[in-house]
Design goal:
476 residues, 11 strands, single chain, 16 helices, Amidase signature (AS) enzymes, alpha/beta, 11-stranded mixed beta sheet
């Protein structure tokens, strides 16, 4: 259980005069001093600025804005005007964006206070939190283990009790996977629900800004603030966001059909993790939900399909980092071509180089249709699986990640093993559906397995209702 209160409880303390925003920032500063040296969860901290902000906002206004006085961490691939944004890469050292991402801007308008930019796998590529130019992040539950990636710093900061809420980004599981390994809630919305304007692109058709929090209701609150149509992002949906009040009033009463995808419980899923998900399903069944085994037959193609698409899109998106426009530039080159090569060679880390090279190959003449074109067709088949299943059930329940967190350094020499960690999470990105990970009670290793709830596209209302009830049934 987190050491933080819910946002509602913090606000109640504010209104009663028992707590103030400067008190909260002081608490954050103390937690940073105590825990950050062993965590490495932040790339940049803005504690003095946060303290000034906390003093400047004064007494609680009426009505209280939804995130008034709430400290947050922000993953370092989300732009924050005039604050260094590096994507944990050498190639972006010193870059200060001239604008703020829409999602973050909406949180700031709602009263949130940014305390720092969190560590991550470089350009959001990785699954362990070890591929950062600024060094690996540690798991707050056991510093010998990885926290997961790529939103490693955000998950660790919430899991360690430094902040109650942090923003992350999720391309193939990068919010939900570290949430599962750090014992916190991780939420990825439907594609198009939250603006990507100001999120440094990795794979544009898959990237989504998500939330890491201590409680499901806090993820819901942040989502309702930052979500919705944005004219600066043509991929955002004009469909209205669900009613938070309606969700919170109805979640205990409504009972839904829960699908259990058999492919997520196969031989590759750790027995203790599978058992935790099965126990969670049984809790829902006892509470009046109906369970049904379902099949997603194209699950075995998720990772090859996903890896081809992300490699192709990252190769295209990262072409802009060449030493000319912003960030790091290698010195000593005698020609423009030499400068390009030297800058990208010195500026990018090994995982980014691997994916750029793979992407350049699958997009090359003679191979584009054989690899990228075929992957897009398989993606449609995967999405069709989910569309078909959601004709019969309201949500899906499964383990978030099939394996427990490895020790630091254990997987660095085995990129394929790292890619396979996204098997159970990447499908939600390929299908564009919402997904949330909730921590179960700790297993024998001391890590709380993540329980993943998925719903149909734009089905956040149903997903949150089930997630809120399951969280209560799990005793959180």
């Amino acid at each position: 259980m987190s050491s933080w209160n819910t946002i509602d409880e913090i606000h109640a303390l504010y209104l009663r005069g028992e707590l103030s925003p400067p008190d909260i920032i002081s608490r954050v500063a103390s937690a940073v001093e105590e825990k950050e040296p062993s965590l490495n969860a932040f790339i940049n901290l803005f504690l003095e600025e946060a303290e000034s902000h906390a003093f400047a906002i004064g007494s609680p206004p009426q009505p209280l804005p939804p995130l008034w006085g709430i400290p947050i961490g922000v993953k370092d691939n989300i732009c924050y005007r005039d604050h260094e944004t590096t994507c944990a890469s050498r190639i972006l050292l010193g870059y200060r964006p001239p604008y703020t991402a829409t999602a973050l801007s909406r949180l700031l308008d709602a009263g949130a206070i940014v305390v720092g930019k969190t560590n991550m796998d470089e350009f959001a590529m990785g699954s362990t939190g070890e591929y950062s130019y600024f060094g690996p992040t540690s798991n707050p539950l056991n510093p010998d283990y990885v926290p997961g990636g790529t939103s490693s710093g955000s998950a660790a900061a919430v899991g360690a009790g430094i902040v109650p809420v942090a923003l992350g980004s999720d391309t193939g599981g990068s919010v939900r996977q570290p949430a599962a390994w750090c014992g916190v809630v991780g939420f990825k919305p439907s594609y198009g629900r939250v603006s990507r304007y100001g999120l440094v692109a990795f794979a544009s058709s898959l990237d989504q800004i998500g939330v890491l929090s201590c409680y499901v209701r806090d993820s819901l609150r942040v989502f309702l603030v930052m979500g919705g149509y944005d004219p600066k992002d043509s991929t955002t949906s004009t469909e209205p966001l669900p009613s938070g009040r309606k969700i919170l009033e109805e979640y205990r009463e409504q009972k839904f059909k829960v699908g259990i995808p058999k492919e997520f419980f196969g031989p590759g899923t750790d027995p203790e993790i599978a058992s935790a998900a099965e126990s969670a399903a049984m809790l829902l069944e006892k509470d009046g939900f109906s369970l049904r085994e379902v099949s997603l037959p194209h699950t075995r193609y998720v990772i090859p399909c996903y890896q081809i698409i992300v490699a192709a899109e990252c190769s295209s998106n990262l072409a802009r980092f060449d030493g000319i426009r912003y960030g790091f530039r290698s010195g000593g080159a005698e020609s423009l071509d030499e400068m390009y090569v030297a800058t990208r060679t010195e500026g990018f880390g090994p995982e980014v180089k691997r994916r750029i090279a793979a992407g350049a190959f699958v997009l090359s003449a003679g191979y584009q249709e054989q690899y990228f074109g075929r992957a897009q067709k398989v993606r449609r088949l995967i999405k069709n699986d989910y569309d078909e299943v959601f004709r019969d059930v309201d949500v899906l329940l499964a383990p978030t990640v099939s394996v427990p967190p490895p020790k630091k350094g254990e997987k660095l020499r085995d990129p394929l093993a790292v890619y396979l960690m996204d098997t159970l999470t990447a499908a939600a990105n390929l299908a564009g559906i919402p997904s949330i990970s909730i921590p179960a009670p700790p297993d024998s290793r001391g890590f709380p397995p993540g329980i993943n709830i998925m719903a149909r596209q734009m089905g956040e209302e149903t997903m949150f209702k089930v997630a809120l009830r399951l969280e209560e049934l799990l005793g959180r």
